[in-house]
Amino acid sequence: MLFDHGTLEPLVNGERALIEIDIHVFQLLHHALAEWLWPMVVLSTIGGGWGSLAVVPLLFAVRTRRFAGSLAAVLGVTAVTVFVLKRIVARVRPCNSLADVKALVFAAPTDFSFPSGHSAGSFAFAFFVAIVLVKGTPAGASAHERRIRLLAALVLPLLAAAVGLSRIALGVHFPGDVLAGAVLGTTVASIGAYFHFAVLRRVTPA
Description:
Number of helices: 8
Largest sheet: none
Structural class: mainly alpha
Low-confidence stretches: none
CATH topology: Vanadium-containing Chloroperoxidase, domain 1
Number of strands: 0
Helix content: over 70%
Order of helices and strands: HHHHHHHH
Radius of gyration: 20 Å
Mean pLDDT: 85
Distance between the termini: 61 Å
Strand content: under 5%
């Protein structure tokens, strides 16, 4: 045998401890955010993909078509990765696994919990746009425009984090799900932004 029971036991115990911590943090945040229920509902709705509809008109405008296409690709890769990981990990949502927790406002989702698709999509959107705003600042941009771009680049990830918190508040995700979604979305966005600018350098005259 490559591993015996004694070798695996610390790993199993460590995983169990992480799960217990995740549940404890969920319960703290879920109850603390209950008084902010309706703002959480709004954030969750935006993070559920409705906000991404803003990309559609940009696909038909010549000036924004390349940006919108890259952003759509980032969101698509993120969604597919979430779909695959949910089925591999197969973690049950808190509203379907904890006796004292119910999904608030919306019906309890029937799919798996890890990672959070809302969190992954929101962070993918926020970080891709933030990187493009900062790195794509025109050389001749005014100081005012630079400040606006930087401010937007700072606010977008905060909104993505708020979307993640809304999923905990509504009882449909553990903090670990949200964190994993954030890492996934940020990673895909960073890779997507790299290729976006690589293509721009190839097609833009020197």
